[in-house]
Structure prediction request, 237 residues.
Amino acid sequence: MKRAVIVITVVTGLLLMVGSVAAAPRMELPVSEFDFGYAPQNSEVSYVFWLHSVGDDTLRILKVVPG
Amino acid sequence: MLAVGDSTQLEIIFNTRRYSSRITKTPRIQTNEGSPNRNVRITTQVVRRPDSTYPVIVKPYKLDISQFGEKVRDEMKFTISNVSEQDLTLKMIYYQHDLFEIDLPESIAAGKSAEGVLRLKDPALDMSLEKSFTFELNDDAASRFTVPIKRTVKSPAALKKPSPKEVSGK
Prediction:
C-alpha cells in the first residue's frame, strides 16, 4: 500500500513536471522582413507585422528594441 | 499579453531622415519565449531626389492630405510617370486596408503617365497620421516604391479664435 502511494506520488509529480515543461509560449511571425524599396528622404514609412501566439502558454511581449 | 491563439500587430515606423543609401533596420522583439530575441527586418532605399527616380516617378512623392478647415478632405490624386522604355505593370504590395483605399493604375505604357487615387476610410478622417503604401513594378529589378501619406487634422474648434470671454475665463 505504502509502495503504491509512493508510485502514484512520483508519477503525478513527473506528469506535472512534463506538463509545466511542455506549456511554453511561442511566437509566430508569418512575415518577418519587408522591403520598402525606394522612399523619399525626410518621410515616415511604416509596415505592420503580425505576431501570433501559437504556444501552450500566454505570450508576453516584453519590449521592442529599435534596430 | 497574448493568450494562446491570439494575434496582435506590431507597426514599425521608419523615418528616412537625411539618409541617402540602402538602409536596413532590425528591431528586436523580446518575449517570454526564453529563446533568443526575435527580429523583424525592414529595408529601404532612401532617395534624395524623388523627382528623378527610375523607372517611375511618383508626383507628388509624398501625399499630404491634411485638413485644416471644415471642408472634409478625404481624397487625393497622384500621378505615376513611366520614364523607362518598357511598358510596366504595377502591383500593390502593402497599404493599411482599414485606413485607405488606393486605386493604382494596373499598367503604364513606356513614356506615359497614369493617375492613382488615395481615399481615406472613415477611421482615418479624424486622425492625424503618417503612413505609407508600397507598390512593385514588373521590371527586371522588381523595383518597389513606397509613397508616404501624411495627414494632420485640425478641427474647426481648434481653428476658431477664442472669444474675449473664453480668454478672460469669465
Remarks:
- Chain B has a mean pLDDT of 92.
